[in-house]
Design goal:
Structural class: little secondary structure
Order of helices and strands: H
Distance between the termini: 83 Å
Largest sheet: none
C-alpha cells in the first residue's frame, strides 16, 4: 500500500494547488539609473 497524504498527496490536491506560483500582477519597477554627472560651476 502506497502512503497517501504525507509523501504522496492525491491528484485532486495537486490539481487544486499547482506548485508553480502565479505571476505577480504588478512587477517591481527596474532600479533607477544613476544620475549623469553634470559639470557643476562650483566645482570647476
Amino acid at each position: 500500500q502506497a502512503p497517501t497524504g504525507c509523501c504522496f498527496p492525491p491528484r485532486s490536491t495537486r490539481l487544486s494547488s499547482p506548485p508553480s506560483p502565479s505571476p505577480s500582477p504588478s512587477p517591481s519597477p527596474p532600479p533607477s539609473p544613476p544620475p549623469s554627472p553634470l559639470p557643476s560651476p562650483s566645482c570647476t
